[in-house]
Structures are given as C-alpha cells and as structure tokens.
C-alpha cells in the first residue's frame, strides 16, 4: 500500500483532470478536428459560417472524445495486458468504470445534442454513427474477432471531413466522400505499421491484429500495397478538379516520402522502421489536409 506522502506526490504530479483529459485521446482528436475543419472550408467557396464552424468543431470534438473514453472503458482489461496501454487511467484503476462510463456518456450526449440543435440533424446522425462505429462496432466487436478490424472500423475514423462538410452544407457531397476515402485508405498503413512494431504485445494480449494472424511479412506487404491505394486516392481531388496545382505538387512530394517509408517497411528488416513509418503517417495525413486547405484558399484568391 502507498504511504500518504507518495499518494500526495502522485496526485500533485498527476491530477485527476489529466486522467479525464487522457480518456479523450486528445492528440488523435486534434488531428481529426483539423480534418473536420478542412471539410468545412472546402464545402463552400468563401469562408464557412463561423457559428456552424464553432458549434461543429465543439460538438464533433466532444463526441469523438466521448467515443475515445468508451474505448478506454471497454478495453480496460485488454489495455492492462499491453505495455503501451497498461498505465492508462481506467486500465490502471486510477479512474473507476462508473466514472469513465458517466464521463464518456456525458461527452457523447453533450456533443450530439449540440450538433442537433446548433448545427443540423444530419451532422448529429452521422457523428452518432461514427461514435457507435468506433466505440461499439470496432472496440467491442471487430477488434477482438478479425484482423480486418481496422479496415472496417476505419470508416468511423475516416468520417471527420464528411462531418465537417455536412455541418456547413447540410448535405452529403461526392467531394466530401473523396476526403473520407483518403483517410479510409490511409488507416491500414497508419495502424499496421504500429501493429508490426507492437506485434508481440498484441499476440500476448490475444488481439487478432494482422501481423499476429497472418505473419509479419504479409502485414509488411499489406502496408506497402495500401500505401499505393492511399496514393491513388490522394490524386483524386486533383483529377476531379476539386483541388489545383498547389495541392498536386505538394501531395506528390508527400507521397514520395510516404512510399519511401512504406517501401522500407516492406523490404527492410530494421525493427525500428515500422515505428518511424507510423509516426510519419501522422505527419503525412496532417500535412495533406493542410495542403488541401491552402490550395482551396490560394485558388479563391488567385
Ligand atoms: C480505426 C482507425 C485507426 C486506428 C486503429 C488507429 C490506431 C492508432 C493507434 C493504436 C495509435 C497509438 C495510440 C497511442 O499509443 O496512444 C494511434 C495514434 C495516433 N493516431 Fe491513429 N488510428 C486510427 C485512425 C486515426 C485517424 C482517422 C487519425 C486522424 C485523422 C489518427 C491520428 C492519430 C494520431 C495523431 C496519433 C498519435 C497520438 C499520440 O501522439 O499519442 N488515427 N492511432
Ligand atoms: C465521432 C468520431 C469521429 C469518432 C471517432 C473517434 C476516435 C477517437 C477514433 C480514434 C481512432 C483510434 C485512435 C483507434 C485506435 O483504437 P485502438 O483501441 O485500436 O487503439 P489503442 O490500443 O491505442 O486504444
């Protein structure tokens, strides 16, 4: 048992708000909100209406953090079995299941309600579908039963640009679906690179991730193949006229780096390469969406 001074030191260093904040996976949600914002910006020729932008970002942000908190709750036993996740707040018992469940419900209900009243019902429905897709379909079911968990579950994570687009226009447009396709195709190279690096932990925890069920070589090949699918998807905004030359030049440069990293994942044997490719995938998707944004406004001005 901890003595009181240790307990005090721990609370001082790790206050409870920080645990609640961590439940929402804030860094992942931040990148998702950038994708939401880009969806909003590309949906209209000028600036999107500020009230929809603010209510949309807050509502989708709350719902996404709620979904992430449900993931922490439902995965608490699994998380305990892996080094990367063992010290998470619910897994380690710093927050109880009831607390986490109430917090996740509160964020989710607040987010969806805000979207319903201040944005539009379609955005609320689509966000609810993404929330349930990640928290229930992916976390509680797919993750535990099939190595295709993230290809199917990735649809929920890919939704943000569509949510942003619909928040501003109230309608689903094919261009928004192109943006969803980019994230959807990018998710397997993003995640399987990490899964290759962490395959021993997933195997020990009994999670059927691709490198565990089909072997490391097959997973490395899939990362390489899906990175080509991602490259193809990223060229569609230019091919359809949605984005211009600035986007094309930038995305070709990004894609060359992306392919280089994923080629090294496929051909290399260095154990650190998949981890580096995973971190590059995050910079890649962030820069790609910022590029779409820059291209959109440059084309408006010139
Ligand atoms: C089902 C789809 C996805 C899966 C399975 C997945 C999986 C993961 C995993 C396991 C991590 C490591 C988390 C950690 O160590 O705490 C991670 C990190 C990350 N993911 Fe994904 N991801 C998905 C979709 C996305 C999407 C759609 C985005 C953004 C658009 C995203 C952005 C990030 C970011 C920014 C990080 C780094 C977080 C940090 O700094 O700790 N991911 N992802
Ligand atoms: C409303 C909406 C857009 C919802 C999407 C919410 C959301 C935060 C998705 C995140 C995707 C992600 C990090 C998956 C990893 O889960 P994991 O359980 O495989 O990874 P872990 O082991 O790190 O928990």
UniProtKB/TrEMBL annotation:
<protein>
    <recommendedName>
        <fullName>Protoheme IX farnesyltransferase</fullName>
        <ecNumber>2.5.1.141</ecNumber>
    </recommendedName>
</protein>
<dbReference type="InterPro" id="IPR000537">
    <property type="entry name" value="UbiA_prenyltransferase"/>
</dbReference>
<feature type="transmembrane region" description="Helical">
    <location>
        <begin position="218"/>
        <end position="239"/>
    </location>
</feature>
<dbReference type="InterPro" id="IPR030470">
    <property type="entry name" value="UbiA_prenylTrfase_CS"/>
</dbReference>
<comment type="pathway">
    <text>Porphyrin-containing compound metabolism; heme O biosynthesis; heme O from protoheme: step 1/1.</text>
</comment>
<dbReference type="InterPro" id="IPR044878">
    <property type="entry name" value="UbiA_sf"/>
</dbReference>
<feature type="transmembrane region" description="Helical">
    <location>
        <begin position="123"/>
        <end position="142"/>
    </location>
</feature>
<keyword id="KW-0812">Transmembrane</keyword>
<keyword id="KW-0472">Membrane</keyword>
<dbReference type="GO" id="GO:0048034">
    <property type="term" value="P:heme O biosynthetic process"/>
</dbReference>
<dbReference type="InterPro" id="IPR006369">
    <property type="entry name" value="Protohaem_IX_farnesylTrfase"/>
</dbReference>
<dbReference type="GO" id="GO:0008495">
    <property type="term" value="F:protoheme IX farnesyltransferase activity"/>
</dbReference>
<feature type="transmembrane region" description="Helical">
    <location>
        <begin position="275"/>
        <end position="294"/>
    </location>
</feature>
<feature type="transmembrane region" description="Helical">
    <location>
        <begin position="176"/>
        <end position="197"/>
    </location>
</feature>
<keyword id="KW-1003">Cell membrane</keyword>
<comment type="function">
    <text>Converts heme B (protoheme IX) to heme O by substitution of the vinyl group on carbon 2 of heme B porphyrin ring with a hydroxyethyl farnesyl side group.</text>
</comment>
<feature type="transmembrane region" description="Helical">
    <location>
        <begin position="149"/>
        <end position="170"/>
    </location>
</feature>
<dbReference type="Pfam" id="PF01040">
    <property type="entry name" value="UbiA"/>
</dbReference>
<comment type="similarity">
    <text>Belongs to the UbiA prenyltransferase family. Protoheme IX farnesyltransferase subfamily.</text>
</comment>
<feature type="transmembrane region" description="Helical">
    <location>
        <begin position="28"/>
        <end position="47"/>
    </location>
</feature>
<feature type="transmembrane region" description="Helical">
    <location>
        <begin position="53"/>
        <end position="74"/>
    </location>
</feature>
<keyword id="KW-1133">Transmembrane helix</keyword>
<dbReference type="GO" id="GO:0005886">
    <property type="term" value="C:plasma membrane"/>
</dbReference>
<keyword id="KW-0350">Heme biosynthesis</keyword>
<keyword id="KW-0808">Transferase</keyword>
<feature type="transmembrane region" description="Helical">
    <location>
        <begin position="95"/>
        <end position="117"/>
    </location>
</feature>
